[in-house]
Design the sequence.
């Protein structure tokens, strides 16, 4: 997940904050607290969708990768964990639309096939 997206804020001297840093910390804490060893939170410095913070990629070996933006550090931690667990259970990484939390549906940006994918 991206930790370097800037979110505009009129109430701070810099005019922006970095909400992905908080989200990465909160997510890692939640994953550890729940003992979700099948999930890994990996901070990265850009996912090339800089105007849609917070941005998260769901990725795994031989799975479609899903890029999701507009996620909030406080409001969407539960949704992200729910989506990540569903992603982890899906053999190809494609989770049925009805099983995706609303924030994950709304923030969908891209899905990318696994390397070597054959239709
Ligand atoms: S800085 Fe976050 S996607 Fe580019």
Sequence:
């Amino acid at each position: 997940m991206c930790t370097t997206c800037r979110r505009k804020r009129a109430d701070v001297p810099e005019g922006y904050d970095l909400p992905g840093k908080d989200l990465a910390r909160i997510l890692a804490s939640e994953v550890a607290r729940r003992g979700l060893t099948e999930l890994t939170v990996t901070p990265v410095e850009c996912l090339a969708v800089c105007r849609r913070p917070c941005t998260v990629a769901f990725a795994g070996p031989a799975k479609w990768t899903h890029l999701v933006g507009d996620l909030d550090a406080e409001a969407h931690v539960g949704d992200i964990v729910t989506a990540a667990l569903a992603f982890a259970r899906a053999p190809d990484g494609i989770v049925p639309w009805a099983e995706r939390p609303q924030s994950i549906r709304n923030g969908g940006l891209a899905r990318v096939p696994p390397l070597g994918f054959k239709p």
Summary: The chain is about 30% helix and 15% strand. The mean pLDDT is 95. The CA atoms of residues 55 and 63 lie 19 Å apart.
